[in-house]
Amino acid sequence: MSRHSSFAMGQSARFATTRWSLVLSAKDRPTADARTALADLCRAYWYPLYALLRRRCRDRHEAQDLTQEFFAKLLEQDFLKNIDPAKGRFRAFLLAAVEHFLCNHWDQQNAVKRGGGRRGVSLDLLPFDWESGESRFLTEPSHEITPERLFERQWALALLERVLDRLRDEYRGAQKQALFETLKPFLTVDQDSIRYADVAAELNTTEAAARVAAHRLRKRYRALLRDEIAQTVATKADIEDELRYLFVVLSSPHSK
After folding, report:
1. Is the pTM of this model over 0.85?
2. Is the dihedral of CA 161, 139, 246, 148 positive or negative?
3. Per-residue pLDDT reduced to its tens digit, 206-242
Protein backbone atom coordinates (compact mmCIF):
# COMPACT_ATOMS: atom_id res chain seq x y z
CA MET A 1 0.00 0.00 0.00
CA SER A 2 1.35 3.44 -0.92
CA ARG A 3 2.02 6.22 1.55
CA HIS A 4 -0.74 8.30 -0.02
CA SER A 5 -3.41 5.57 -0.09
CA SER A 6 -2.74 4.72 3.53
CA PHE A 7 -4.11 8.14 4.48
CA ALA A 8 -7.53 7.08 3.29
CA MET A 9 -7.59 4.26 5.86
CA GLY A 10 -7.88 6.77 8.67
CA GLN A 11 -5.44 9.22 10.13
CA SER A 12 -5.76 7.89 13.68
CA ALA A 13 -4.53 4.44 12.65
CA ARG A 14 -1.27 5.78 11.19
CA PHE A 15 -0.61 8.91 13.22
CA ALA A 16 1.93 7.27 15.53
CA THR A 17 4.26 6.73 12.57
CA THR A 18 4.44 10.34 11.40
CA ARG A 19 7.87 11.91 11.39
CA TRP A 20 7.68 14.31 14.33
CA SER A 21 5.74 11.91 16.56
CA LEU A 22 8.40 9.28 15.80
CA VAL A 23 11.11 11.71 16.89
CA LEU A 24 9.30 12.58 20.11
CA SER A 25 8.59 8.96 20.97
CA ALA A 26 12.33 8.25 20.84
CA LYS A 27 13.33 11.04 23.23
CA ASP A 28 14.49 8.70 26.00
CA ARG A 29 15.91 6.04 23.67
CA PRO A 30 17.12 7.62 20.42
CA THR A 31 16.96 5.38 17.38
CA ALA A 32 18.29 5.46 13.85
CA ASP A 33 14.72 5.76 12.56
CA ALA A 34 14.09 8.80 14.72
CA ARG A 35 17.29 10.44 13.52
CA THR A 36 16.31 9.77 9.92
CA ALA A 37 12.84 11.19 10.57
CA LEU A 38 14.39 14.34 12.01
CA ALA A 39 16.75 14.62 9.04
CA ASP A 40 13.74 14.31 6.71
CA LEU A 41 12.05 17.20 8.49
CA CYS A 42 15.20 19.31 8.42
CA ARG A 43 15.65 18.67 4.72
CA ALA A 44 12.05 19.66 4.04
CA TYR A 45 12.04 22.84 6.12
CA TRP A 46 15.60 24.12 6.07
CA TYR A 47 14.83 27.22 4.02
CA PRO A 48 12.59 29.02 6.57
CA LEU A 49 15.42 28.73 9.07
CA TYR A 50 17.99 29.94 6.53
CA ALA A 51 15.77 32.94 5.80
CA LEU A 52 15.67 33.77 9.52
CA LEU A 53 19.45 33.52 9.82
CA ARG A 54 19.98 35.43 6.58
CA ARG A 55 17.95 38.34 7.96
CA ARG A 56 20.06 38.36 11.13
CA CYS A 57 23.51 37.89 9.60
CA ARG A 58 25.95 40.23 7.90
CA ASP A 59 25.93 38.35 4.62
CA ARG A 60 24.98 35.13 2.87
CA HIS A 61 28.19 33.33 3.79
CA GLU A 62 27.70 33.83 7.51
CA ALA A 63 24.10 32.68 7.21
CA GLN A 64 25.21 29.56 5.33
CA ASP A 65 27.88 28.85 7.94
CA LEU A 66 25.36 29.12 10.75
CA THR A 67 22.69 27.11 8.97
CA GLN A 68 25.08 24.23 8.39
CA GLU A 69 26.48 24.35 11.91
CA PHE A 70 23.02 24.45 13.43
CA PHE A 71 21.81 21.37 11.58
CA ALA A 72 25.08 19.57 12.30
CA LYS A 73 24.55 20.13 16.01
CA LEU A 74 20.90 19.18 15.75
CA LEU A 75 21.72 15.82 14.20
CA GLU A 76 24.34 14.77 16.72
CA GLN A 77 23.75 11.60 18.69
CA ASP A 78 22.20 13.53 21.57
CA PHE A 79 19.91 15.50 19.28
CA LEU A 80 16.83 14.64 21.32
CA LYS A 81 17.99 15.85 24.71
CA ASN A 82 16.51 19.36 24.39
CA ILE A 83 13.23 18.34 22.80
CA ASP A 84 10.21 19.05 24.94
CA PRO A 85 7.32 16.76 23.93
CA ALA A 86 4.92 19.29 25.45
CA LYS A 87 5.83 21.77 22.71
CA GLY A 88 4.03 19.55 20.24
CA ARG A 89 5.24 21.06 16.99
CA PHE A 90 8.46 20.72 15.04
CA ARG A 91 8.05 24.32 13.90
CA ALA A 92 8.11 25.61 17.49
CA PHE A 93 10.98 23.34 18.45
CA LEU A 94 13.08 24.43 15.48
CA LEU A 95 12.56 28.11 16.21
CA ALA A 96 13.39 27.70 19.90
CA ALA A 97 16.42 25.56 19.09
CA VAL A 98 17.90 28.07 16.66
CA GLU A 99 17.39 30.91 19.14
CA HIS A 100 19.31 28.91 21.75
CA PHE A 101 21.99 28.08 19.20
CA LEU A 102 22.40 31.74 18.25
CA CYS A 103 22.75 32.84 21.86
CA ASN A 104 25.60 30.38 22.33
CA HIS A 105 27.16 31.33 19.02
CA TRP A 106 27.19 35.06 19.63
CA ASP A 107 28.57 34.52 23.13
CA GLN A 108 31.38 32.31 21.90
CA GLN A 109 32.05 34.32 18.72
CA ASN A 110 33.09 31.08 17.11
CA ALA A 111 31.88 30.97 13.51
CA VAL A 112 32.31 27.61 11.77
CA LYS A 113 33.53 27.68 8.17
CA ARG A 114 31.12 26.38 5.58
CA GLY A 115 31.90 22.79 4.56
CA GLY A 116 33.69 21.92 7.80
CA GLY A 117 30.75 21.05 9.97
CA ARG A 118 31.32 19.28 13.28
CA ARG A 119 33.69 16.36 13.40
CA GLY A 120 31.88 13.05 13.14
CA VAL A 121 28.66 14.66 11.89
CA SER A 122 27.57 14.05 8.32
CA LEU A 123 25.22 16.34 6.45
CA ASP A 124 24.87 14.00 3.49
CA LEU A 125 21.15 13.73 4.21
CA LEU A 126 20.79 17.50 3.95
CA PRO A 127 21.95 18.68 0.50
CA PHE A 128 21.36 22.39 0.91
CA ASP A 129 20.80 24.32 -2.31
CA TRP A 130 22.43 27.56 -1.26
CA GLU A 131 21.96 29.31 -4.60
CA SER A 132 18.25 28.57 -4.67
CA GLY A 133 17.88 29.63 -1.05
CA GLU A 134 19.68 32.91 -1.63
CA SER A 135 17.63 33.64 -4.74
CA ARG A 136 14.43 33.07 -2.79
CA PHE A 137 15.62 35.30 0.03
CA LEU A 138 16.40 38.15 -2.34
CA THR A 139 12.79 38.12 -3.55
CA GLU A 140 11.44 38.65 -0.05
CA PRO A 141 9.30 41.78 0.46
CA SER A 142 11.28 44.94 1.06
CA HIS A 143 9.16 46.04 4.01
CA GLU A 144 10.45 45.60 7.52
CA ILE A 145 9.66 42.18 8.91
CA THR A 146 11.22 40.49 11.90
CA PRO A 147 13.34 37.37 11.36
CA GLU A 148 10.84 35.38 13.40
CA ARG A 149 7.94 36.60 11.29
CA LEU A 150 9.88 35.78 8.15
CA PHE A 151 10.47 32.27 9.49
CA GLU A 152 6.75 31.77 10.09
CA ARG A 153 5.85 33.06 6.63
CA GLN A 154 8.38 30.87 4.88
CA TRP A 155 7.39 27.86 6.97
CA ALA A 156 3.78 28.20 5.84
CA LEU A 157 4.81 28.65 2.21
CA ALA A 158 7.20 25.69 2.35
CA LEU A 159 4.50 23.45 3.75
CA LEU A 160 2.01 24.42 1.06
CA GLU A 161 4.67 23.95 -1.62
CA ARG A 162 5.34 20.43 -0.38
CA VAL A 163 1.61 19.64 -0.48
CA LEU A 164 1.35 20.89 -4.05
CA ASP A 165 4.41 18.89 -5.07
CA ARG A 166 2.94 15.72 -3.59
CA LEU A 167 -0.33 16.32 -5.39
CA ARG A 168 1.47 16.97 -8.68
CA ASP A 169 3.47 13.76 -8.27
CA GLU A 170 0.29 11.75 -7.73
CA TYR A 171 -1.31 13.11 -10.88
CA ARG A 172 1.89 12.63 -12.85
CA GLY A 173 2.08 9.04 -11.64
CA ALA A 174 -1.48 8.50 -12.85
CA GLN A 175 -0.62 10.02 -16.26
CA LYS A 176 -2.83 13.02 -15.50
CA GLN A 177 -0.28 15.81 -15.55
CA ALA A 178 -2.26 17.91 -18.04
CA LEU A 179 -5.39 17.59 -15.92
CA PHE A 180 -3.48 18.73 -12.84
CA GLU A 181 -1.94 21.76 -14.55
CA THR A 182 -5.34 22.83 -15.88
CA LEU A 183 -7.12 22.51 -12.56
CA LYS A 184 -4.30 23.67 -10.24
CA PRO A 185 -5.28 27.38 -10.38
CA PHE A 186 -8.70 26.50 -8.97
CA LEU A 187 -7.22 25.35 -5.67
CA THR A 188 -6.94 28.95 -4.54
CA VAL A 189 -10.05 30.59 -6.00
CA ASP A 190 -13.67 30.70 -4.96
CA GLN A 191 -15.54 27.79 -6.47
CA ASP A 192 -18.35 30.10 -7.60
CA SER A 193 -15.91 31.99 -9.80
CA ILE A 194 -14.85 28.93 -11.80
CA ARG A 195 -16.16 28.84 -15.37
CA TYR A 196 -16.54 25.10 -15.73
CA ALA A 197 -17.67 25.40 -19.33
CA ASP A 198 -14.28 26.88 -20.23
CA VAL A 199 -12.49 24.20 -18.22
CA ALA A 200 -14.48 21.49 -19.96
CA ALA A 201 -13.60 22.91 -23.34
CA GLU A 202 -9.91 22.99 -22.49
CA LEU A 203 -10.01 19.40 -21.24
CA ASN A 204 -12.21 18.23 -24.08
CA THR A 205 -14.78 16.83 -21.68
CA THR A 206 -18.21 17.65 -20.30
CA GLU A 207 -18.92 20.41 -17.80
CA ALA A 208 -20.15 17.82 -15.29
CA ALA A 209 -16.92 15.85 -15.64
CA ALA A 210 -14.89 19.02 -15.17
CA ARG A 211 -16.76 19.77 -11.94
CA VAL A 212 -16.11 16.27 -10.63
CA ALA A 213 -12.41 16.47 -11.53
CA ALA A 214 -12.02 19.83 -9.78
CA HIS A 215 -13.86 18.53 -6.72
CA ARG A 216 -11.58 15.50 -6.51
CA LEU A 217 -8.48 17.66 -6.84
CA ARG A 218 -9.56 19.96 -4.01
CA LYS A 219 -10.53 17.03 -1.81
CA ARG A 220 -7.18 15.33 -2.32
CA TYR A 221 -5.35 18.59 -1.72
CA ARG A 222 -7.10 19.01 1.63
CA ALA A 223 -6.24 15.45 2.62
CA LEU A 224 -2.58 15.92 1.71
CA LEU A 225 -2.48 19.24 3.54
CA ARG A 226 -3.65 17.61 6.74
CA ASP A 227 -1.24 14.73 6.22
CA GLU A 228 1.72 17.06 5.69
CA ILE A 229 0.82 19.01 8.81
CA ALA A 230 0.56 15.73 10.70
CA GLN A 231 4.21 15.07 9.90
CA THR A 232 5.24 18.15 11.92
CA VAL A 233 3.03 17.88 15.02
CA ALA A 234 2.89 15.49 17.95
CA THR A 235 -0.79 14.59 18.09
CA LYS A 236 -3.81 14.48 15.85
CA ALA A 237 -5.40 17.22 17.97
CA ASP A 238 -2.61 19.63 16.95
CA ILE A 239 -3.55 19.50 13.28
CA GLU A 240 -6.47 21.91 13.53
CA ASP A 241 -4.36 24.42 15.45
CA GLU A 242 -1.70 24.28 12.76
CA LEU A 243 -4.32 24.80 10.05
CA ARG A 244 -5.48 27.92 11.84
CA TYR A 245 -1.87 29.03 12.20
CA LEU A 246 -1.36 28.70 8.45
CA PHE A 247 -4.45 30.76 7.77
CA VAL A 248 -3.36 33.53 10.14
CA VAL A 249 0.20 33.70 8.81
CA LEU A 250 -0.77 33.71 5.15
CA SER A 251 -3.63 36.17 5.57
CA SER A 252 -1.60 38.76 7.47
CA PRO A 253 -0.65 42.04 5.74
CA HIS A 254 3.02 41.00 5.57
CA SER A 255 2.40 37.57 4.06
CA LYS A 256 2.58 38.73 0.47
Report:
1. no
2. positive
3. 999 999 999 999 999 999 999 999 999 988 889 999 9
Q: How far apart are CA 220 and CA 36, in angstroms?
A: 27
Distances (CA, A) of 42 to 39, 53, 145, 193: 5, 15, 24, 38
Report CA Rg, the chain: 20
Distance of CA 46 to the CA centre of its chain: 8
- Grouping H, G, I as helix, E, B as strand and the rest as coil, residue 108 is helix
- Quote the Cα angle for 240-244-248, to 5°: 170
Query: What pairs with residue 233 in β-bridges?
Result: 89
* Contact (Cβ atoms closer than 8 angstroms) between residue 166 and residue 4: yes
Separation of alpha carbons 120 and 203, rounded Å: 55
